[in-house]
Amino acid sequence: xxxxxxxxxxxxxxxxxxxxxxxxxxxxxxxxxxxxxxxxxxxxxxxxxxxxxxxxxxxxxxxxxxxxxxxxxxxxxxxxxxxxxxxxxxxxxxxxxxxxxxxxxxxxxxxxxxxxxxxxxxxxxxxxxxxxxxxxxxxxxxxxxxxxxxxxxxxxxxxxxxxxxxxxxxxxxxxxxxxxxxxxxxxxxxxxxxxxxxxxxxxxxxxxxxxxxxxxxxxxxxxxxxxxxxxxxxxxxxxxxxxxxxxxxxxxxxxxxxxxxxxxxxxxxxxxxxxxxxxxxx
Length: 282
What we know:
By secondary structure, this protein is mainly alpha-helical. About 65% of the residues lie in helices and about 5% in strands. It has a 3-stranded mixed sheet.
């Protein structure tokens, strides 16, 4: 290891130790800001962009308990703003498929919940804390349980990798820390923050690397159940045909339909492997 890099890491470790014993919130925020700035400078300067990009993509400052609290408040807002379907058949299908997929996860950070909402658009989305919503339009659009399972597995992948929390972290950074410190113990403040996050659309828009992760995890989840693993590919290809006619597809506003995503999924399906390469992630 480069001596300068090693020295920088030692400095960061020492600063983190000091941070642990600082009681004043303001000093904590100031020191944390310095640490983040120094970390970016250190890794960009010493390692280059090829190493910093994964660090940025996985950057997450939202504690698990706060993610769950935010998700509960966002779920309340969704229940007020969208119509939760009371169709027993649709709800039964979505919940059954969702639980089958969740059951093969090696760990569960959340109590995963699945809902059907009345919306004609063929779409689905995930909020912090493991709640997943499927539009009635999606249920009417898919041609098989395999396609539906592929989409739901993709959304479970987002929740599993905590992509909503990472999206908040990338967008807000230290501002989020300050807000949460101020909101600690104040349910009203947390609810207001949740509404703000949902209103800005941060919870349903992910980067390309997030989509790749969710695709890969979804693929292996369907492989570990009885669903055909190419269901998501068929779904994306059907939507791509619709969008080629010039229409606006809501699913593509939050899930970019890049050809390389479909190509990657097909490559996974054709790869000759005896052990899932995602095992280290899962």
